[in-house]
């Protein structure tokens, strides 16, 4: 084979890897999911990640599935089931009284900002930001999933 054939094969392999990564991380949201070890003190390490998309307990027989699986943002086409789970979580965890309607509105966003402020070290600092965004993206989703798993 000549250099051109090797280059074409290399491009195909690179494209395949990029496509797989995009599908796994962006579409399925499995990249950066926390691998949380729940010890007897229920400590949570949100910086440890797993490519499986599951949050694991070392003393449990089965892994805890992610509670929130998609990114959520006001004005976006959000998954209503994930938004309802988020609203339920925020009501239980922050004591808010959000309607569990599956619509991510300004009240939901304000509650997420409160959550991000409370857990800034885990959800904002890794991005190098100090102000809450109201977006439920990678680290916010990881922290919610870790806290949800620790309660089970």
Describe the structure.
This protein has 152 residues and is an all-alpha fold. The chain folds into 2 domains: 29 residues; 85 residues, PGBD-like superfamily/PGBD (Muramoyl-pentapeptide Carboxypeptidase, domain 1). Helices cover 47% and strands 3% of the residues. The radius of gyration is 18 Å and the shape is elongated.
Brief digest:
This protein is mainly α.
Shape: elongated
Radius of gyration, in Å, reads 18 Å
Q: Average pLDDT, to the nearest integer?
A: 78
Derived structural class: mainly alpha
The name of the CATH architecture of the largest domain is Orthogonal Bundle
Helix content: 40-55%
Strands of the largest sheet, in order across it?
1-2
Q: Work out the count of structural domains.
A: 2
**How many runs of DSSP E, i.e. beta strands?**
2
CATH C-level class of the largest domain? Mainly Alpha
User: Could you give me the name of the CATH homologous superfamily of the largest domain?
Assistant: PGBD-like superfamily/PGBD
Number of helices: 5
Could you tell me how far the N terminus lies from the C terminus, measured between alpha carbons in angstroms? 57 Å
| Share in β-strands | under 5%
Which fold name is given in CATH as the topology of the largest domain? Muramoyl-pentapeptide Carboxypeptidase, domain 1
Q: What pattern of helices and strands is seen along the backbone?
A: HEEHHHH
Uncertain regions: pLDDT < 50 for 5+ in a row?
33-61
The main β sheet shows up as: 2 strands, antiparallel
């Amino acid at each position: 084979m000549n250099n051109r054939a090797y280059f074409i094969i290399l491009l195909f392999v690179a494209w395949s890897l990029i496509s797989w990564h995009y599908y796994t991380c962006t579409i399925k949201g499995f990249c950066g999911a926390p691998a949380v070890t729940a010890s007897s003190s229920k400590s949570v390490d949100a910086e440890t990640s797993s490519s499986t998309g599951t949050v694991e307990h070392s003393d449990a027989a089965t892994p805890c599935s992610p509670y929130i699986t998609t990114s959520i943002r006001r004005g976006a086409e959000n998954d209503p089931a994930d938004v309802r789970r988020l609203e339920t979580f925020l009501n239980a965890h922050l004591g808010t009284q959000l309607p569990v309607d599956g619509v991510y509105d300004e009240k939901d966003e304000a509650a997420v900002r409160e959550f991000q402020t409370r857990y800034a070290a885990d959800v904002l600092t890794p991005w190098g930001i100090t102000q809450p965004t109201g977006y439920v993206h990678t680290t916010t989703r990881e922290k919610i999933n870790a806290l949800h798993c620790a309660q089970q």
